[in-house]
Each structure stands twice: as structure tokens, then as C-alpha cells.
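does this look right to u?? 3-methyl-2-oxobutanoic acid version
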Amino acid sequence: MTSPKPHSGPAQPTLAPSPRRITLETLRQMRQRSEPITMLTCYDYSMARVLAGTGIHILLVGDSAAMTVLGENSTIHATMDFMLTITRAVRRGAPDTLVLADMPFASYATPDTAVANAARLLTLGQADAVKLECDGRHAPIIAALRAAGIPTCVHLGLLPQRAAQHGGYKAQGRSASDADKIVDDATALWRAGADLLLLEAVPDAVSSRVVAGTDCPVLGCGAGPSCHGHVVVLHDLLGFTDNPPRFVDKMADVPSVISQAVERYVTAVKTRQYPLPRHGYMMKG
Ligand code: KIV
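got this back:
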């Protein structure tokens, strides 16, 4: 007589992440191997599915969505609830891609509010890390997030949330003193616990000093070839933006593709070529 098989019960969920999943450790290893890191903004489920299929490493749920998706004139109009909703949508579409969520304007004014809001982006939004527009004064906030176990990306250089304060969207770090400040801030914030640095619209001479002075992946948005990886706004790349920044090459004219498809649809409806019998439902019985 054979002994009964032990009762195995229902399959237990595994705690191990998918082996395909991109993590901060993946990015650190890529930095070690000098392998370029790719990153684009993404704001919705359908686009996240398409982008995830390309093998891109990071999807940035940027507060630029306030402008590209909502048509506002500044990123400060991205609210916490809006960022939570779109971050969760991007995660659903890209389960194995590293999802980085922007912390909205004024959502990280103190260490306590930063931890509370960032925790929501990680738990409800299911982001892997949060991005904050910073200068050296934010070191206590980055340290508080680190202590709470929240991975961070520190955004330096051109800070779109402060465009009004800085007199517009201008390249930063072009004078020796401004360059020194960005390098010093980057080093201080990395020492405070930042996992990633992102430099926007600064000369490569600044980026190369940040890369040399820190030990984490440095991502550039118009910040030159020294950075370990690069990010641009997807809508700029795909041709949706009238005056994209000089550092973005338009890789496709997606609005034209959409217009052509919609014009075909409109014509088909107007000329009664749509719907055809094959599009309809038959009565049962
Ligand atoms: O919100 C955003 O799209 C960004 C990029 C410009 C880096 O922060």
C-alpha cells in the first residue's frame, strides 16, 4: 500500500519577483557594466503595454502629464490623486518595468508629508520609486524617505515645478558657480540616500562631474552623454509637441497616423461603408 501524498493545498503565491522584472539593483548593475539605461515618460495603461514590449527599462509617470494629457500650462497642476490613478494604470500595463512616479508639486514640503505621500505612490500606485525635484535643502527629506524604506530619484537642474520661480524653462548649470551648486547638491542628496539622480537641461560638463562624484545611476534629460541613462517626454518623441526641447529628436509623426486612421473612419461612416453586415449581430433563433 502506498502512503497517501501529502496534501499540497492551493498553489501558494510566490514572494520572488519575476526574473524579468527591472529593479534598482538591475540599474546599479547596468551602471557597473556601462550599459545604457533607457527611460521614457508614460501616463496610461495602453501605452505602458506598448512600451513594456520594447524592453525599455524605466517608465516615468511624470507630472508632465498635467501638460501632455490634461493640457495645463504647468506641471504643478498634477494632483496627488491624479498621479496615483495614472501610476497604477502604468503599473498594470508594465508589470516588469521599473515604474518611477513623480511626487506632485508641494507634496514633499516636509519630511512627514513626503513620507506619507510617497508611501501612497508605492502602495496604492504600485510604483517602485518616487522622483522629487530637489536642491541641497532637501537632504533631510531624502534621508526621511530612505529611513522609511522608500526609494528615491532626485531631480536636479531644470526643475519644471519651479519654472515660475526660475523665470521659465531654462538650461541650468551653465556658469561655474551654478555648475558647482548642482554638483554639490547632487553629492549631498546622494549621500542623504538618493537611489537615482536625474539631471535636466545641464551641460555634459556638469553631468560628468556628478557621475564621477557619486555611486548611483545618473539619468539625463538633455544632460549629455556622460549620464548612465536617458529620458525624454514620450509626447515630444512621438511628434505631439509643437516646440519640443532641442535635445529631443522626433522619432515618429504619431498624430498624422491617428489623423489618417480617424479620417478613414469618418469617411467610411459618411459614405455608408461602415458598418457592413459583417460588423453586426444576428438575432438568435
Ligand atoms: O515630468 C516629467 O516628464 C519629467 C521629465 C522631464 C524628466 O520630470
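The two ends are 57 Å apart (CA to CA). idk if thats expected tbh
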